[in-house]
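Narrative summary of target 7.
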Amino acid sequence: MGSINRYIFRTTFGAFTVVLVSLTALIWVTQALRDFDLMTSQGQTILVFVGITGLIIPLLILVIAPIALLIAVVHVLNKLSTDSEIIVMNAAGMSPWFLFRAFMSVALVVSLIVCAISAYFAPKGLRMLRDWLTEVRANVVSTIVQPGRFTSIENGVMIHIRERRNNGELAGIFLDDRRNPNERITVLAETGELLDNDNGTFLVLQKGIVQRHEFKERDPAMVVFDRYAFDLAQFSGGQQAVKYSIRERYLWQLMFPDPKDPFYIEQPGQFRAELHDRLVAPIYPFAFVVIAFTYLGAPRTTRQSRTMSLIGAISGVGLLRLIGFVSTVFGANTPWMLSLQYVALVIAFGAGMFVIRRGLILEPPAFLAKWMTAVIDRLNRQFATP
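Modeled conformation, tokenized:
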């Protein structure tokens, strides 16, 4: 790799990294706010909150990486054109194909990242997210230790704790159990502590009163106790087998699904559509670079507008991605629709390579360019500051 290729690779990959990190962080914050109740209502720490919501980052990178690469390539090509570097390189006898190879090397790196995330890291993150959220939201202990709140841990069971001391001891405990339609149990205790061992999770109460009131009796029966253990494991539901969705399956599980898998038996088309979507994901970075370079890679003078070429590149990428999305959605029920995304990719690569090898400049028809220029000028005048 020559000095020019290293310069283009370094500049493009640096811009790609900045765009990827910025967009991922922005979208992650908006998604993370959905699970903010993990701290507010579930009593979890900020580290647990960040850890849980951070598991969606691989999936975000999978979606954002090709778009970030497109933005980086467009930025670098526009910079090279604005500084007249493309014109100087062309005048020195350097063909557009030489520059194109430098951008494709960046696409190769991004494609490998997307391939690894699509095959393993994104499903792994989603699996961990499902397991962790299930554990946190089903954890009775983390739910009840919220002082000053009446918390229903099950239909008919209400608990209230006045305070939680620094040593972890609970004070001022009120427990009301109405699950039995013929009997109501109310427990009042001065202190208590949570005990988790091999036998289960218990709320060990000290110095209190148990009041049992059978509805057919007029007066309740009251028992004073020094120590009383209330079983909390009955509310946790025990260990349950987690059923992972199709998006949470690894690539090899989609390629060779278990014939006895209930999801595969019920939705074989969804498995097939998800598999093809994973297979074409690493190809999109190459396709986006080809389309961007097809419109913006040819040498132009500073007097020649690149606005229309930029619009063409964005439109081409948008159309290609739209075809892929439609192909995946409808391909679940209509298998032949899955071939549309491959046909679109082949056409994009074939047409793009032809234009790049010939060094052609793609420009819209004169009437369309004139109309678009008039629209842009009108918008600029309308929104221009007085």
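The chain has a mean pLDDT of 82.
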